[in-house]
Design a protein that fits this description.
Blueprint lengths: L17 H6 L2 H15 L9 H23 L6 H16 L4 H25 L4 H49 L6 H10 L7 E7 L14 E3 L6 E5 L5 H7 L5 E3 L3 E2 L3 H16 L8 E3 L4 H6 L3 H11 L8 H17 L3 H8 L3 H15 L6 H22 L2
Parallel strand pairs: 4-6
Antiparallel strand pairs: 1-3, 1-4, 1-5, 2-3
C-alpha cells in the first residue's frame, strides 16, 4: 500500500528528528489506548490472555511504531504491515464481533493517540503548524490501517458467506436427490449449516427471467445458479412478500406441501405448473400456488388415461364439424357447471337463451339418457374440463 507523498502532505511537514522522541512514547500510549478500549467498548472488555490479548496488544503497538517510521521517513510504505492488519480484520470477523465494533475501536484509538501526541507536542514545544500537521498525520495513519482491517474483515465475511451458501445449496441437492439420500447425511449437513429439518415443505419453481438474490441464512434453501432455479420453503414460512420484492417481473409456482422425503415431488409439480402458466393453461399470476389448482394439475397429469376418458365420454360429438363440436362442448360444460336452465346457461356464455335451448336439444339427441345419470354427468364434466386443459397442454408439447 505505497503512496506518493506530495508537498502538501502532513508527513512532509513533520521534522524527522521527532521520530526518536516519539518512539519512547510508544509503550505508554499503547497501554492508554488498550485500557480505554477495554473500558469503553464492551466487546473488548474480556481478559487480555491468549490469542485475543496478543492480537489486540500487538495491533496497537505496531500501529504506533509504524506511525513513528512514517514520521522518520514519509515514504515508508505500509505494505510490510498491511497483511497484519488484514489478518486482524479477519480475526475480528471470526471472533464474531461486528464491523461497527472494529471501526469504533479504531476511532477511539485515534482520539487517544492524538491526545497523547498533543501532550507530547506541548512538552517539546512544537509550533502550531507542526501540531496541526501532526494531528492530520495521526488521523490519516489510523484511516489507512482501519481501511486494511476492514478489507480483511469483509474478505473473511464474503468467504464465509460463499462457503455457507455452497453448503446450503448442497443440502438442497441432497434433499432432492433421487435415489433418496440417507437421512443421517441430510441431518448432519443440516446441523452444520444451522438449518432446522422441517416436517413438511413447499418447493418453489422460479422463472429464470426473474431470479431473486440468494438467501444465505434463514429457513429458505435456494439453488439459483442452474437453468431451473428453485427454493425450498418449510411449511409455515411465508415467502410471498420476499418473492414479490425480488422476482422482477418473473413468475414462481409454489408446489404442494410434502414431507421432506417427498420434496422432489413438490418440485416436479411446481415446475409443471410453471410451464402450464406459460402455456396459458393455468392463470397467469406472479406467484401461483399449486394447492389452488390441484384438480387441474391432476387432470393434465396422466395423458394416456385423460385422453381415453375424453374419447369415451365425448364420442357422441365426433360426427360434428370442429366448430359445431366446440359450440356444443362449451354449452354442455356450462350446463353441467351451472345446473340451470337455458337462461342461466345463456348468461354464463353471453348468448341468447333461444340459442341455448336449440343446443341443449341437440345435446339431448346426441347423449340421450346419459344426461340424466349423475355418474355419467360427472364423467362428462371431468372429460370436458380435461379436454379444455389438454388443448393448452398439447399446443406446446
Amino acid at each position: 500500500m505505497n503512496r506518493l507523498i506530495d508537498a502538501g502532505s502532513p508527513w512532509t511537514k513533520l521534522p524527522s528528528e521527532l521520530a526518536p522522541l516519539m518512539r519512547a512514547q510508544v509503550p505508554g500510549v499503547t497501554a492508554q489506548i488498550l485500557s480505554r478500549i477495554q473500558q469503553e467498548i464492551p466487546e473488548y472488555s474480556r481478559p487480555l490472555d491468549g490469542h485475543f490479548g496478543h492480537a489486540i496488544t500487538n495491533g496497537i503497538e505496531h500501529a504506533l511504531i509504524q506511525f513513528v517510521h512514517r514520521v522518520a521517513d514519509p515514504q515508508t510504505p505500509l505494505d510490510p504491515c498491511a497483511e497484519m492488519y488484514r489478518l486482524l480484520g479477519r480475526g475480528e470477523f471470526h471472533e464474531g464481533r461486528s464491523l461497527d465494533t472494529l471501526q469504533a475501536a479504531y476511532r477511539l484509538g485515534a482520539r487517544i493517540a492524538w491526545r497523547s501526541m498533543s501532550e507530547f507536542g506541548e512538552q517539546v514545544q512544537l509550533s502550531t503548524s507542526t501540531m496541526r500537521a501532526l494531528g492530520e498525520a495521526v488521523f490519516e495513519h489510523i484511516d489507512d490501517l482501519a481501511a486494511l482491517a476492514v478489507e480483511g474483515y469483509l474478505a473473511a465475511k464474503a468467504k464465509a458467506s460463499g462457503s455457507l451458501e455452497r453448503r446450503r445449496r448442497r443440502l438442497l441437492e441432497l434433499v432432492l436427490a433421487e435415489p433418496p439420500t440417507p437421512k443421517q447425511v441430510i441431518t448432519e449437513l443440516a446441523a452444520a449449516v444451522s438449518w432446522t429439518l422441517p416436517e413438511q415443505v413447499h418447493l418453489v419453481a422460479l422463472d429464470p427471467a426473474g431470479v431473486p438474490e440468494p438467501w444465505v441464512d434463514g429457513p429458505i434453501l435456494a439453488d439459483l445458479e442452474g437453468p431451473a432455479p428453485h427454493l425450498l420453503v418449510p411449511v409455515g414460512v411465508d415467502c410471498d412478500e420476499q418473492l414479490g420484492e425480488v422476482l422482477r417481473g418473473g413468475r414462481a409456482a409454489i408446489g404442494p406441501a410434502a414431507a421432506l422425503d417427498d420434496a422432489a415431488e413438490s418440485l416436479r409439480w411446481a415446475r409443471r405448473a410453471l410451464r402450464l402458466v406459460k402455456d396459458g393453461v393455468l392463470p397467469d399470476e406472479p406467484v401461483l400456488r399449486c394447492s389452488e389448482h390441484l384438480a387441474s394439475l391432476w387432470l393434465v397429469s396422466e395423458a394416456f388415461l385423460r385422453d381415453a376418458l375424453i374419447r369415451k365420454c365425448l364420442a357422441p360429438l365426433d360426427p360434428l364439424t370442429p366448430k359445431q363440436w366446440e359450440r356444443l362442448a362449451e354449452t354442455l360444460l356450462a350446463w353441467l357447471e351451472t345446473r340451470s336452465g337455458a337462461p342461466g346457461v345463456a348468461a354464463r356464455l353471453g348468448i341468447h337463451p333461444q340459442t341455448v335451448r336449440y343446443r341443449l336439444h341437440q345435446l339431448e339427441d346426441l347423449f340421450g339418457e346419459r344426461l340424466n345419470d349423475p355418474g355419467a354427468r360427472f364423467e362428462l364434466e371431468v372429460a370436458l374440463r380435461a379436454d379444455r386443459l389438454a388443448r393448452g397442454d398439447k399446443d406446446t408439447g
